[in-house]
Specification:
binds guanosine-5'-triphosphate, 4 helices, binds magnesium ion
């Protein structure tokens, strides 16, 4: 799980692990990367704050850099627009545009709007991960 500061990584991992959402999540110091790995396939989950329009260009660049890494070539990419409960959020179509996901080739790309807070669409995230974990 990779994402800029404040995107909601800790919140999502906590909720996915069956914990409670807390509004006063403490910023994670140090490592911000978790891998869901099985065999030789590392699934990539890139999370963004879909309501933080100013951070999206930075997220777009970070994602670009990650996708250029030879070790991650061809690996499926799951992009999560978190905080879909916020009124100012971008739609999935707008996120695809803002992150330039249509330019991603030679790998499967999925993009979901989710909310760690309201637990919206998290079943889709789990389904995505489960469906690809056996490959
Ligand atoms: N409204 C809303 N707020 C959220 C959601 N997910 C996380 N937040 C809030 O966003 C802030 C940052 O969440 P974190 O989970 O700490 O984000 P993070 O990506 O782990 O941040 P760093 O560890 O600092 O990189 C916290 O105040 C969370 O409560 C969401 O789905 N909706
Ligand atoms: Mg964190």
């Amino acid at each position: 799980m990779i994402g800029l500061q404040n995107a909601g990584k800790t919140s999502l991992l906590r909720v996915l692990a069956g914990g409670e959402f807390t509004i006063d999540s403490i910023p994670t110091v140090g490592f911000n990367m978790k891998r869901v790995q099985k065999g030789h396939v590392t699934l990539k989950c890139f999370i963004v704050d879909s309501a933080d329009r100013e951070a999206l260009p930075v997220a777009r660049e970070e994602l670009q850099i990650l996708l250029e890494k030879p070790a991650l070539e061809g690996i499926p990419l799951l992009v999560l627009g978190n905080k879909s409960d916020l009124p100012d959020k971008l739609s999935v179509d707008e996120l695809i545009e803002a992150l330039n996901l249509k330019a991603v080739t030679h790998r499967e790309v999925s993009c979901y709007g989710i909310s760690a807070k309201e637990e919206t669409n998290l079943d889709a995230v789990l389904q995505w991960l489960i469906a690809r974990s056996g490959r």
